Amino acid sequence: MAQSADITELLRQAQQCNSSAEAALVESVYGELRLMAARYMRRERKGHTLQTTALLNEAYLKLIRHTEAEWKDRSHFFATAASIMRRILVDHARKHLAGKRGGGADVLPLEENLVFTPDRSEPLVRLDEALHRLQQQDPRATRVIELRFFGGLSVEETAAVMEISGRTVRREWNFARAWLREDLGLGSGDANELE
């Protein structure tokens, strides 16, 4: 894995349309982004998910086109990746539900790789709505959930991205999970939904 400073410099150069920097960036971050996408996709049922590669490719394209971003470092890049992956999944789930209700949803470019069912789409949309409510109350706890649950980051990685202590991450993680369980009406038997 390339050093954080190397990735930061590659990000800056790639944004300036340097094709060799973009190729080096892909080589440096693709494996880690794939692991991040795979961590989230493991939570989905077999045969009913967006394929990991499709999620990864769509997220990478959005990241590399994110020209207004001033990348601080490697952690900032991966935190943004987690956020983008969440948006892709939630947007698709919303479109799936709109189509199910007879709405004229636009087709995503990844549609051939998407196989969602109502039992997976609806909970994802509900979780996103709950996260918006939590955001109003505690933005930091919401960010911890986003990075850990959607991004698959460890406590230490989340602490580095957010520039807070691991202890604070754990406290915010526990609070946010409890808050979401209550907001979503999940019982203790549903606890692993937010693991």
Can you offer a commentary on this structure?
The longest helix has 27 residues. The two termini are 27 Å apart. This protein is mainly α and 195 residues long. The protein has one domain. Helices cover 69% and strands 0% of the residues. It is globular.
List how many beta strands DSSP finds.
Answer: 0
Shape: globular
Low-confidence parts: 102-118
Rg is: 17 Å
Task: Characterize the quaternary organization of these chains.
Answer: single chain
* H/E element order: HHHHHHHH
Helical fraction: 55-70%
- Average pLDDT rating: 75
The SS-based structural class is mainly alpha
Q: How many domains make up the 3D coordinates?
A: 1
The number of helical segments is: 8
Distance between the termini: 27 Å
Query: For the report, how would you describe the main beta sheet?
Result: none
Proportion in β-strands: under 5%
Q: What's a quick, concise take on this entry?
A:
69% of the residues lie in helices and 0% in strands.
Note the topology:
Blueprint: H1 4-15, H2 19-41, H3 52-64, H4 74-100, H5 118-137, H6 139-150, H7 155-162, H8 166-184
Helix pairs in contact: 1-2, 2-3, 3-4, 4-5, 4-7, 5-6, 5-8, 6-8, 7-8
